[in-house]
Write a structure and sequence with these properties.
The chain contains 15 helices and no strands. By secondary structure, it is mainly α. The radius of gyration is 31 Å and the shape is globular.
């Protein structure tokens, strides 16, 4: 029904001043636009955002399809992998190699600053100031000093660490029996991880010696990994590559024990708070739990192992040829004191937390890729006896 009163547009047309020979354009809104607002054109920004969301979703779905295809092809080529078989341990070994080698290499700039500040706490005032100073003096390449021995060393260590942990966990579990293994599972995690790390550090130690010397000498004492090994063995013999083995064990074994035992415990606790069983969740949720559990475990690892990490850097940089291990440690501790053992802790917490979460995420993602279950989560307890 038409209105009995004139609209504001009509009143404006009647009473507003108009110039001769000009056409006045009414500002009134057409009636059909008011009655049908849904016909208005959407804002271009909204259309662009919606378009981006649609394209991102399509790319994500396509990527998931391609990963599923690759996973199926890899599983078909490898054949069925039975748990705790040689194929299973080989897959875990390769997964550990990738997880540790890639992640440690990626954080080389953080490790470079950490090692130099451990040797000389007054060298830099902060990470960004350090990277700026290194970049101006040595170029962008200088910020990644030591990446090659880091990659070789931690790839070897990761292979023995993760593969060895899976092996020793099963080995000690069989020795203890099902009921005792479940009851004392934390002790089982600690023993298995310590056994694996004991072997893994023997593979890591020569490369760690080269890495620390490259990062703490300015300019670096060698241009590459194998030239560094040749330089050290030429002056000090093979023993020069292993003079940091004891403090490396002192740093890495407690670190790895905390890393695996706390991860298993944290992941089990996370699944305990979730409404469904671990097996009922998809691959994405399980790897997400691994990532979260890894970061929390990494914080604890950094704190436990940091004093030994400082001592490793000091020994590799300052230990004199022929100097006894105990004498060198005593001399270094006298120089830096107890507080000096905690130099660089904050940056190491950030570095190790990120490293550990990425390592568990990559490792468990690879296991899922090969059709294997992720690590951790509550194992079903053994059947209770009648008198319980």
């Amino acid at each position: 029904m038409p209105s009995l009163f004139p609209t504001t547009g009509v009143l404006g047309d009647v009473f507003s001043p108009q110039l001769p020979y000009t056409k006045h354009v009414s500002n009134s809104t057409p009636k059909q636009d008011l009655l049908h607002p849904q016909k208005h054109t959407r804002f271009p920004a909204w259309s662009a955002v919606d378009d981006m969301k649609t394209k991102a979703g399509a790319l994500s779905n396509e990527a998931q399809r391609e990963i599923s295809k690759a996973s199926s092809a890899a599983q078909a080529k490898a054949g069925e992998i039975e748990l705790y078989s040689l194929k299973y341990y080989a897959a875990c070994t390769f997964g550990g190699l990738v997880a540790c080698g890639v992640t440690h290499t990626a954080v080389t700039p953080l490790d470079l600053v950490k090692c130099r500040r451990q040797v000389d706490s007054k060298m830099y005032t902060g990470n960004f100031q350090a990277w700026g100073k290194i970049g101006r003096a040595e170029g962008f390449r200088g910020i990644f000093t030591g990446w090659a021995p880091t990659f070789f060393g931690y790839s070897a260590q990761g292979a023995f660490k993760y593969g060895g942990y899976e092996f020793f966990k099963k080995f000690y579990s069989d020795l203890a029996g099902e009921e005792a293994a479940y009851r004392y599972k934390t002790g089982l995690y600690l023993t298995a991880s310590a056994s694996a790390e004991l072997i893994a550090d023997v593979a890591l130690c020569p490369f760690e010696a080269v890495k620390v010397r490259m990062q703490t000498t300015i300019p670096p004492f060698a241009s590459g990994t194998f030239s560094g090994i040749s330089t050290i063995t030429g002056k000090e013999g093979t023993a020069g590559l292993y003079k940091g083995l004891y403090p490396l064990w002192g740093r890495q074994i407690p670190y790895t024990m905390m890393k695996f035992a706390s991860f298993e415990t944290i992941v089990e606790a996370i699944y305990g708070y979730m409404p469904k069983k671990k097996s009922e969740y998809g691959k994405g949720i399980q790897t997400g739990v691994s990532f979260a559990g890894g970061y929390m475990a990494g914080i604890l690892c950094a704190i436990v192992s940091h004093p030994a990490d400082v001592m490793v850097s000091k020994l590799n940089a300052n230990r004199q040829p022929g100097e006894a291990f105990g004498s060198a440690m005593g001399r270094i501790y006298k120089d830096i004191g107890f507080t000096g053992l905690w130099n660089g802790l904050i940056i190491r917490i950030f570095m190790i937390g990120t490293l550990t979460s990425l390592q568990w995420g990559i490792y468990d993602s690879f296991k899922v890729f090969m059709g294997l279950p992720t690590t951790g989560g509550a194992a079903p307890p053994p059947k209770q006896t009648a008198n319980l």
